[in-house]
Amino acid sequence: MSVNSGTIDRPLRVAIVGSGPSGFYAAGALQQADLNVQIDMLDRLPAPFGLVRYGVAPDHDNIKVITRLFEKIAQKENFSFLGNVYVGKDISVEELKEFYDAIIFACGAETDRKLDIPGIDLEGSHTATEFVGWYNGHPDYVDREFDLSQEVVVIIGQGNVAIDVARILCKTVDELNKTDISQHALDILAESKIKEVHMVGRRGPVQSAFTFAEIEEIQDLKNCTPVFDKKYLDINEASRIELNNPNDHMYIRKWKVFENFAQTKDIKKRKLILDFYLSPVEIKGQGRAEKVIFEENELVGKPKAQKATGTGRFIEIDCGLFFRSVGYQGRPLGWVPFDEQKGIFPNKDGRILDGDHEVPGMYAVGWIGQGPVGVIGTNKSPAQKTVANLLADIPRLTPCRNSNPQAIYDFLKQKGVAVITFDDWKKIDAAEIARGQEAGKPREKFIRVEDMMNVVGKKTLMSTDEKRR
Ligand SMILES: Cc1cc2nc3c(=O)[nH]c(=O)nc-3n(C[C@H](O)[C@H](O)[C@H](O)COP(=O)(O)OP(=O)(O)OC[C@H]3O[C@@H](n4cnc5c(N)ncnc54)[C@H](O)[C@@H]3O)c2cc1C
Ligand SMILES: NC(=O)c1ccc[n+]([C@@H]2O[C@H](COP(=O)([O-])OP(=O)(O)OC[C@H]3O[C@@H](n4cnc5c(N)ncnc54)[C@H](OP(=O)(O)O)[C@@H]3O)[C@@H](O)[C@H]2O)c1
Prior knowledge:
The protein is an alpha/beta fold. It folds into two domains: 12-110 and 330-468, NAD(P)-binding Rossmann-like Domain (Rossmann fold, 3-Layer(aba) Sandwich); 114-325, FAD/NAD(P)-binding domain (3-Layer(bba) Sandwich). Helices cover 31% and strands 21% of the residues. It has 17 helices and 18 strands. It has helices at residues 21-32, 50-54, 66-74, 93-99, 128-135, 160-170, 173-176, 183-190, 212-216, 237-243, 250-263, 367-370, 380-393, 407-414, 422-438, 449-455, 464-468; strands at 12-17, 37-43, 79-83, 102-105, 111-112, 125-127, 152-156, 196-200, 224-228, 270-275, 278-284, 291-300, 307-318, 321-324, 328-329, 347-348, 351-354, 357-364. Strands 3-2-1-4-18-17-16 form a seven-stranded mixed beta sheet, with helices on both faces. Strand 1, helix 1 and strand 2 (37-43) form a beta-alpha-beta unit. Helix 1 (21-32) packs across helix 13 (380-393). The two termini are 38 Å apart. The structure holds flavin-adenine dinucleotide and NADP nicotinamide-adenine-dinucleotide phosphate (NAP). Residues 17-23, 42-45, 50-51, 55-56, 60, 63, 86-88, 106-108, 110, 132, 161, 164, 328, 333, 366-367, 374-376, 378-379 line the site of flavin-adenine dinucleotide (FAD).
């Protein structure tokens, strides 16, 4: 690098786009490096923490303590939060480069993987992404409507997100009303008529993607019985090899939960039914989802590589509400190279690649870099590795044209973007906690961007709706 950046006179200027776990792990790693660095973390929302706030289920509050670590990072002198700044809309990637020597993209996988079957757009068919965003008060999704007057729900997919969706649908209001679930969602859930939730996997129980603790928790629900037909305990040889994996006892632990479920006799008000070996082929209904047609599958292939293969036999499940929970996917951003198939910014150890070539000064961490798999902590080590690569690249980075730390604020102000600082966020946070206390909840989130901005007396020229378009 031609300027002596990272020194006392000229801090290295790094922008991190996204304030979820991967962004914070990257920021923490930068703070531990032996150099003078200024980290500006931008998020399109006024509230930080990404899916820790807007994904993690409200009844899993203990997971959210990780935000205390992130707060410590945010409160260091060389860190600034620029909330309510939408990269790609309020500022382009090209413009961002003017102000930073390096950009780390930590913008997550914000959309859903597609399930392209006839009838998918019928009324009553939704993505898990929408439903999760709705009950967690994500401003993009709070106006969605879910018809919980239906009695039967089908969820496609058997990952931990599907289990979150199923659990929230199956819990009683008493089990949810002391959580930080958004009140608008709780009010609708309180009127729910749901009796049966089918969680449908295209492969078998051994291949189910949810983890032990998450499936075990279902048996403790107050008013819901897990239903597991004992025919599913009969598995093929390859699955038995997977089950008895000596290096991973999670399979056996999960299996014991299934065995327990298979013996359950008492049937409570709601049932969470685990269905296997079924691929959805069509949703049918007059104007809205009324039934799902499935092809029965058998598993073909070696242990750990078994694929669901259609048998040509079909069954149907009548339902009034349908959710697809088949994984998340990243979104393209400006001219940043994007792998359409994987839904990520292609990279090697975090360095963004355009074909075979590295794009100088541009990095990807977390779900936008590795794809939408793994828990919060999974994002730490790749973020650290990426930061190590960024530090190694310093001599060949092109210095930004405008290294004045104030310049980005002036630029955004001129564009009418009101920046939410971390101090602003702490005020919004305190207001949410105070609102929650009245109802005995950890917090009552503000579900609209404008309401968060109002707490700190800021207004943005471009409305949230305009930004979303
Ligand atoms: C529904 C759900 C529940 C989960 N529950 C758990 C759990 O209980 N425990 C657990 O350990 N893990 C859980 N996970 C996994 C965990 O949330 C992820 O591993 C982690 O959040 C990924 O971090 P990230 O930083 O890559 O992305 P994210 O957390 O998604 O953060 C991305 C951030 O980027 C911002 N952003 C996006 N685009 C832009 C842009 N153009 N400009 C500015 N900002 C932008 C977003 O607003 C967001 O704040 C869950 C995941 C999901 C989907
Ligand atoms: N409590 C927690 O810790 C928690 C909570 C939520 C999320 N997370 C993590 O977040 C990550 C993402 O979770 P996720 O549930 O979105 O994804 P996931 O774990 O990848 O699960 C996706 C599910 O969808 C199925 N699927 C994919 N394509 C399909 C298709 N075309 N037809 C039918 N089924 C299909 C998969 O089946 P196949 O296996 O056959 O592909 C799998 O059952 C995971 O790593 C998860 O552990 C953690």
